[in-house]
Amino acid sequence: MTSMTSAPSATTDTTPIADDTERAREPMIWVNGQMLPKSQAAVSVFDHGLLYGDGIFEGIRVYNGKIFKLGQHMDRLYQCADKIFLDIGVSREEMIDIQRKCVEANGIKNGYIRLVVTRGEGSLGLNPYQCPKAGVICIADTIALFTPEMYESGMRVVLAHRPKTPIACLDPRIKTLNYLNNIMAKCEAIHLSQKLGITDPKDQLLEVIMLSTDGKVSEGSGDNIFVIKDGKIYTPPSDVGILEGITRRFVKDELCPMLGYSVEEKLFGIEDVYNADEVFLTGSAAEMIAVREVLTHDNLEVTGTHTISEGEGPITNALRTKFREIVTSDNVPED
Ligand SMILES: Cc1ncc(COP(=O)(O)O)c(C=O)c1O
């Protein structure tokens, strides 16, 4: 352990924002131009999103009835579509309207939107140009990636063996429906947790740190990473091969300046994670969560345990408290 940091103060509410959706009836899903009950919402088995993972998606938080950073999510969605030569066929305004309708139809006040654009129905070959119309799906629901105990105590994560898909193969900045690289990495943590028989909700292993093929820290399976050393905050640059997270940007460009912390994008290795004073992850689904320990393994045998902090460190706690303050206010940013 390189530095001992104190646990959050007893006065700080460290629990994640509760998803307080009350379901009176079956969830309503937007699928290809129609709002349908979940039991009837379906796509064709010839949709290339299903056949090949050919498509893109967004995961977006709803806080206090507002769609958090909606503008930035729309920018990313349409930019990603361009990068895979996908004509969404629905304007940005219509897409926003679809999301608001889904939020309303499902009575979501605090929850999560999953927006999926698939290549659409086509023939059995790979050729995307044989799919005349993109598929658009919008689900407004709730999500819980990690246990509430982990938000309070910080989580343990695993260093993944599997490296991140390099930019030259498939740029991780494109939020495609191809998530198997991340899923297989996440399985390393889940399988290790199972093998060790961990049942305590705060100790479970559900997330990994992934390295680039040349050994630099990239991100988690579904979140970005920040490290804090001597009061300074660092996060890997996007060209190491990461998704340019919207929560990452919010923390880096808004929360940190608000609280007077400097943030630098720089390449670093796993030793810098082990030696950090604090580490945390960010994502629309994960929100902000501290990492208190990193385990290494070889073929699911633990080879090392690196304690970073005892619980959530003070800077992470200050940032998360500010985050919470903003997303529970009447001014949840939709920009
Ligand atoms: C691989 C990966 N990295 C980072 C993130 C965080 O991005 P955002 O903050 O935009 O949700 C996600 C979110 O889904 C992700 O899948």
Describe what this molecule looks like in 3D:
The strands form two sheets. Strands 7, 8, 9, 10, 11, 12, 13, 14 and 15 form a nine-stranded mixed sheet that branches. A six-stranded antiparallel sheet has the order 2-1-6-5-3-4. Strand 8 (205-211) and strand 9 (217-219) form a beta hairpin. The protein has helices spanning 48-52, 70-83, 92-105, 148-153, 180-196, 246-259, 270-274, 314-327, and strands at 28-31, 34-37, 55-63, 66-67, 111-118, 135-141, 155-159, 205-211, 217-219, 224-229, 232-235, 263-265, 278-283, 287-298, 301-307. It has two domains: 28-141, Aminotransferase class 4, branched-chain amino acid transferase, N-terminal domain (D-amino Acid Aminotransferase, Chain A, domain 1, 2-Layer Sandwich); 148-327, D-amino Acid Aminotransferase, Chain A, domain 2. It has eight helices and 15 strands. Helix 6 packs across helix 8. Bound molecules: pyridoxal-5'-phosphate (PLP). Pyridoxal-5'-phosphate is lined by residues 59, 182, 219, 222-224, 243, 245-248, 282-284.
What structural class do the secondary elements suggest? alpha+beta
Approximate strand percentage? 25-35%
Low-confidence stretches: 1-14
Give the overall shape, derived from the CA principal axes: globular
Highest-level CATH class of the largest domain = Alpha Beta
- What is the assigned CATH homologous superfamily of the largest domain? D-amino Acid Aminotransferase, subunit A, domain 2
SS elements, strand count: 15
User: What string, H for helix and E for strand, traces the elements in order?
Assistant: EEHEEHHEEHEHEEEEHEHEEEH
- The CATH architecture of the largest domain can be named as Alpha-Beta Barrel
Distance between the termini: 40 Å
Q: Look up the CATH topology of the largest domain.
A: D-amino Acid Aminotransferase, Chain A, domain 2
Q: Gyration radius, to the nearest Å?
A: 20 Å
Please give the domain count: 2
